[in-house]
Design a protein that fits this description.
alpha+beta; 5 helices; 6 strands
Length: about 170
């Protein structure tokens, strides 16, 4: 009888933990969607697509340490030329990078965004991001990137978002 209770308790804990993670990512994604809409409402369909992609990633159980994090970072962009979505989600324990093209994920991507871009988002250094955008976004048609930071404080989810043009410094970022 004790074995059965222990096994049942184990299932309840595992199942409950999984539901918590899924509910949490759904809540986070909704917060990000609202936050991103405040930046530029005209791109509503694009931001809705980012939200839908985050939900699909959650359904694939690709980002599992969400319940252990105090802060989660997101970088998301869309290639207009080929219709590919690019993304990175990370915290202090885990990181995933992906492309999403024609309803298919590729999680074998590394270095979609530069280490320096990730560092600035992680530090939430908005002034430096804006400066980099001015100085090093000289490409003919730079990709627009949405950077987001989700923090958890006292049971509340707080979202901050920024939109910026891709920047690259050959000496630093190669």
């Amino acid at each position: 009888m004790l074995k059965i209770r222990t096994i049942l308790l184990g299932f309840v804990i595992l199942f409950g933990s999984n539901i918590y993670s899924q509910d949490m990512l759904s809540t986070i994604s909704k917060k990000l969607y609202k936050c991103q809409l405040q930046i530029k409402p005209k791109e509503k369909d694009l931001k809705k697509s980012f939200h839908e992609i985050r939900i699909k990633i959650d359904s694939l159980n690709k980002f599992n340490s969400i319940k252990d994090a105090d802060t989660i970072y997101f970088l998301e962009s869309f290639g207009i030329e080929d219709g590919t979505f690019y993304g990175k989600i990370w915290n202090r324990n885990e990181s995933i990078e992906y492309t999403y093209y024609r309803r298919k994920f590729n999680f074998n991507q590394k270095g979609i965004f530069t280490q320096y871009t990730c560092k600035l988002v992680e530090e939430w250094n908005i002034l430096e991001i804006c400066e980099e955008e001015k100085v090093n976004s000289t490409m003919t048609s730079p990709i627009t990137i949405f950077g987001s930071r989700i923090s958890f404080k006292k049971g509340k989810v707080k979202a901050k978002c920024i939109k910026f043009k891709e920047f690259y410094n050959f000496e630093r970022d190669r």
